[in-house]
Every structure is written in C-alpha cells, then in structure tokens.
Amino acid sequence: MKKWYIPFLLFLILGTVYIAHERNQSNAFISEEGAIFGTIFHVTYQSKNSLKQDIEAELAKVDSSLSMFNPQSNISKLNTGKEKEADKMVQEMFSLSKKINNATYGAFDPTVAPLVNAWGFGFKHQQIPDEKQVDSLRQFVGFERLRMNNQGFIQKDDERMMLDFSAIAKGYATDRVAQVLRKNGVQNFMVEIGGEIVVSGTNAHGDPWRIGINKPDAVAVDPVQEVLSVSNCAMATSGNYRNYYVTASGNRLAHTIDPRSGYPIQHNILSSTVFAPSCAVADAYATAFMVLGLDSAQMVLEKHPELQAYFIIDAGKGISKVVKSKNWKLN
Q1: Sign for the pseudo-dihedral over CA of 217, 222, 228, 231
Q2: According to a count of CB atoms within 10 Å of the terminal CB, is the N or C end of the chain lower?
C-alpha cells in the first residue's frame, strides 16, 4: 500500500465517523419531565440541545397567571379582588372561553367553581348540598355575568363570582410548551401535561406518534382502550370514571357539574377525548361534551368540522361502547 493512501483512508474514516456523530446528534430525542398544576408534564423532542430551562420558564409563566393553587397568580388575585386587570394569558383564556361557552350552550363555564366546591370536588371537603344551597350558589355562576374590556379589566355582576380556568389551563400550558419548541426549530415532539397532548412530526423511529386512549376503568389489567397514530394535532380527555364518590344512599356522584343546573351530570358518557388544532380548545370541548351528553355533543361537532371526538359510553350491564364523531378520520 502506498504511504499516501494511509492518511487518505484515515481522513475518510474520521470524516465518516464525524458525519455519523453529527447525524446522531441531530436525530437525538430528549425527554424531560417535571411538575405543574398539581400534575406531571412529559416532553419528548428531537434537538441537539436540552430546552428544559426554556420549558420550565414558560410553565412558570402559565402558573403565575392561571394557577388556582398559586395565591400570587393573576387569576387568584382577580378572584380575591386584589387585582382588577387581567394579564395577557388570562385575557386569552377569557376570550377563548367566551367563544366555547357560546358554542356549547353554556356547558363550558369557568365560573362554575362555587358549585364544584359545594359538591366536594374542589378545594373543600366532600359534602352534599341541598336544593336551597344549590339555588343560592347559582347566582354566582354564569359566564354571561362577566365582561372584559379592551384593556383587560373584568367587570362582574357580583364581586363574589370566581374565575377558574382549570378545565382549559392544562391544554393551554401544553400549547405554550409546543410554541417554545417550535420557536427553537424543533419539528418532531410530543408534549403531555396531565393527559393533555400536542404532537408534531414523527417519533424517534420516524413514525407517527402512538397515543393510547385509556379504558374508563381505574382497575383494568390492560388500561388502554385503543392506540391511535397521530401527528400535528392536539388532544385532551375528560372523564368521570376516576373522580367521583358514592353517597350514603348508594348514589354515584360524578365530579363534572353542569353549570346550567348546578348538579352533577347523570348521562352515560364515561370519557370524552377531543382532537383539535390547539390543546386549549380540545381541553375545553372535552369538558363541555361531558356536560352536554352524547346527542348534544354530536350536534356541536357537526357545526365544528375542525374537531374530532372519541367517546366511551356506558352501554349498560357493565359494558362500555366506543362512539366516534361523524367526521372521524384518525387511525
């Protein structure tokens, strides 16, 4: 072998190793997790560098604005009267919630917290209010009794009314993390916060993301009802099969309260999963459909082709059944 071949071959070998290394680095998927809103977030994304600091900084902003568990958040101060002006995130949630409140005939309502608390599913201990108590609390519920001007000042018909965006905040936070990833040039990722999900591109194998929908059974040996292949969409699930309690008389009370009646829902939807362009929208509609029931939910879906829904309903005798929206296209 001629001597000049040796450095040439070494150059080729080192070059190949370098290219393989760079390709491996550019294709690396990173996983992050942490705590927010009393739950856990998981983020898996393709990037050369960790973006955990940026992700946590964005979640801290959401917490300081929308968290009901943070007494210093903007929403907490609005509820206690320490603030009158909503920050940008609260303004966004207020405007979006108004649209969905109107689209769902009042089924999605961020003012329902007093009733949720009264039935024992909020910040207070379990209790069962009587009819008089429910009627008394309904005067503090109704999104139409709140208004927000262009400067973000919120006016209430009664100052004792509360705003609680818990049924949309996790979805919104998931969207915000997805925005952070996109701004950093990340195309392939999955963001999940407490079951609310945004996916983009493909997974580490180059395939669409595989997302499982849980069975409405807290003790199932196999907890997955169905696995879907999805990409470039957002999804959220609402259900009553875990958060409920049984009264002394044997009645099962679901944690979803109908803001229009003041009472826990009684229909047969066990879980509602919605796919939408944004996770905040999916989150809100998933909650609203639990309130509306199957027939009314399907009526709303017919007016909103941008949404797809996957319902698991109680078919009786311990049997559950899957019902999908008429425009269902996912595999």
Answers
A1: positive
A2: N
Give CA separation, 320 vs 14, 77, 270, in Å.
59, 43, 8
pTM > 0.85:
yes
Q: Between these two residues, 278 and 221, which has the higher pLDDT value?
A: 278
Report yes or no: 145 and 109 within 8 Å, Cβ to Cβ. Answer: no
3-state secondary structure the chain: CCCCHHHHHHHHHHHHHHHHHHHHHHCCEEEEEEEECCEEEEEEEECCCCCHHHHHHHHHHHHHHHCCCCCCCHHHHHHHCCCCECCHHHHHHHHHHHHHHHHCCCCCCCCCHHHHHHCCCCCCCCCCCCHHHHHHHHHHCCHHHEEECCCCEEEECCCCCCCCCHHHHHHHHHHHHHHHHHHCCCCCEEEEECCEEEEECCCCCCCCEEEEEECCCCCCCCCEEEEEEECCEEEEEEECCCCEEECCCCCEEECCECCCCCCECCCCEEEEEEEECCHHHHHHHHHHHHHHCHHHHHHHHHHCCCCEEEEEEEEECCEEEEEECCCCCCC
CA separation for the pair 55, 176 (Å, rounded)? 9
- Report angle CA 309, 315, 318 to the nearest 5 degrees: 120
Burial 146-178 (b: 16+ CB within 10 A, else e): bebeeeeebebeeeebbbbbbbbbbbbbbbbbb
* pLDDT tens-place string over residues 300-327: 999 999 999 999 998 888 788 999 999 9
The answer, yes or no, to whether residue 182 has pLDDT greater than 90, is yes
Could you report the per-residue pLDDT of 61-116, keeping only the tens digit for each? 999 999 998 999 999 999 999 999 999 999 999 999 999 999 999 999 999 999 98
The Cα 310–Cα 328 span in angstroms is 8
Lowest mean pLDDT segment, chosen from 36-40, 123-127, 157-161: 123-127
